[in-house]
Amino acid sequence: MLQFSICVVTIGVYRVTIHPLSLYPGPKLWAMTGLVQTSYVFRGRLAKRVADLHDAYGSVVRIGPNELSYISTAAYKDIHGRFSNRAQLRRSPDFLPTNAVNGKQGLFFVESDADHARLRFAIWFQL
């Protein structure tokens, strides 16, 4: 039990002090664990709480061990926009399904830009 406690404390201290996202503002408990965020999700109050955090900390807030929340239009365009001079940002493998439903992969989970464009084009002209 002592080793487990030491491990948990060490991970928490790492996430708050030397983690690459440790320089971003936000509540320290939220930076240590995703459990706080999860509790707000289950109560249906996450959006309101994140808005309150933005009021307190500014336009960029650390809301989890590996998550940042942005509210500026420029950040949205940088993250989700399409640029001709750079490749589209890749989705984390954590969000990809482990197995496809009915043996087919949905449009949302296609990793290749060319395949995504081809499928989107096909769907558009079926309407």
Structure, described:
By secondary structure, the chain is mainly alpha-helical. The chain folds into two domains: 2-76, no CATH class; 89-124, no CATH class. It has six helices and two strands, in the order ααααββαα. A two-stranded antiparallel ribbon has the order 1-2. A hairpin with a 2-residue loop joins β1 and β2 (67-70). The mean pLDDT is 84.
Short description, anyone?
This protein has 127 residues and is mainly α.
The SSE string, one letter per element, is HHHHEEHH
The gross shape turns out to be extended
Q: How do the strands line up in the largest sheet? A: 1-2
Give the N-terminus to C-terminus distance in angstroms: 59 Å
- Return the domain count: 2
Low-confidence segments, given as residue ranges, are none
Characterize the largest beta sheet: strand count, sense, and whether it forms a barrel: 2 strands, antiparallel
Helix segment count? 6
Percentage of residues in helical conformation: 40-55%
Topology:
Blueprint: H1 2-17, H2 28-32, H3 35-43, H4 46-57, E1 60-64, E2 67-70, H5 73-80, H6 113-124
Antiparallel strand pairs: 1-2
